[in-house]
Amino acid sequence: MQYAFYFDSSRCLQCFACEIACKSAHGLAPGVNAEPGTQGPRWRRVVTIDPLSGGDTPVQYFSMSCMHCGKPACEAVCPTGAIHKREEDGIVVVDPSKCIGCHYCFFACPFGVPQYGDDGTMQKCNLCLERLEEGQQPACVEQCCGGAIHFGTLEELSKLIESETATQLAGSTHPAMLVGR
After folding, report:
1. Strand runs labelled E in the chain
2. pLDDT tens-place string over residues 121-143
3. Any bridge partners for residue 115, and if so which?
4. Chain-centre distance of CA 116, in angstroms?
5. Which of 53, 55, 101, 140 could be bridged to 18 by S-S, CB 3.0 to 4.6 A?
6. Could you give the CA distance from residue 148 to residue 137 in angstroms, rounded to a whole number?
7. 118 exposed, middle or buried (CB, 10 Å; 0-12, 13-18, 19+)?
8. What is the pLDDT of residues 40-84, one digit of tens each?
9. Measured in Å, how far apart are the chain's first and last C-alpha atoms?
10. In sequence order, what are the beta bridge partners of 48?
């Protein structure tokens, strides 16, 4: 089984509710007098994708977090074994007590996901593991105002989007992220 996110960019309002919900659920500092999306660590972040110059493509927004890859590059380069992929659900987790803050994972991750807190150790989205264990959805999914973020197994999400134009992100790490429109 592999848990994953599905993100429909056509429904993203760039409201930052997903990012704020993530920070709140995990006790991450929002920053004093900061605009959403400007201070970290940001386990989920809304990024702007500007159109190519001269094109008619509008600006799009992408709510991004750890992709919980099938073959996580971060896990492969971690010298202490602080990062591992759970076999039972595919969630990539970090053991902060083993992290030495070397940043190898940051440089290996093709998505720039690893974040670092004040203590210098790596932290990132864990799919709200504690919420999942209580039968709840990840905080970002629950608070998404536009209904742009969905969560489930890759199989469940594939069925959800059968009638839509969506693809799984490609890459050598096999990211567990489906993207629509």
Report:
1. 3-8, 45-49, 60-64, 83-85, 92-94, 115-116, 122-123, 149-153, 166-168, 177-180
2. 999 999 999 999 999 999 999 99
3. 123
4. 15
5. 140
6. 14
7. exposed
8. 688 988 887 766 655 666 667 788 899 999 899 999 999 999 999
9. 25
10. 61
